[in-house]
User: Fold this.
Amino acid sequence: MKFFTLLWLLISINSAAEDDHHDHHHDHHHEEHEKKEKKSLDAHVHGVSTLKIVQDNNKLSFEFEMPGFDVVGFEYKAKKKEDIKKVKNALKVLSDYTNMLHLSETAKCTEDKNSARVINEGSHSEFMSEYILNCKNITQLKELKIEFFKSFEYSKKLNIELVSKNKTMSYQMDRLNNSIDVKNFFND
Assistant:
């Protein structure tokens, strides 16, 4: 899996260099994070989240990164009761991969692992979720339907990077275009 993480890093750097979006920056002092947390939030554009999909043999890893505004409608660390409730509800939604995506049933995928968290840094927050699915018939995976937009009303676009054993693809999707044809993309 380290190979795929390195591959994602290289693809992300390349994608960032080609991206002509205006990044969202704020000047602020960085807070220290709990150990092994992401040290610094990447610059992001409100309304634009990312999804990285990586194949490792018969396993698929799905990693979402979403600006806090896209998920709960604000970027700051939740302190008010109402805001804390929004964050807890969002983490609950993110904890179930079926709220985020749907795979062709013929691939016979089952969940091995999931995680969801929010990272707060200064005046920014970011939600992250990861799902690892074990697919008995990965070559039968024909379509990925992204349910992400149904779950988060402030989200407008999703940048997607896919990596299989022999191929890479990039997509940008929105609320109206929420499925990816992956027929013959994933191999045994």
Observations:
- The chain is about 20% helix and 35% strand.
- The helical segments are 2-18, 68-72, 81-94, 148-151.
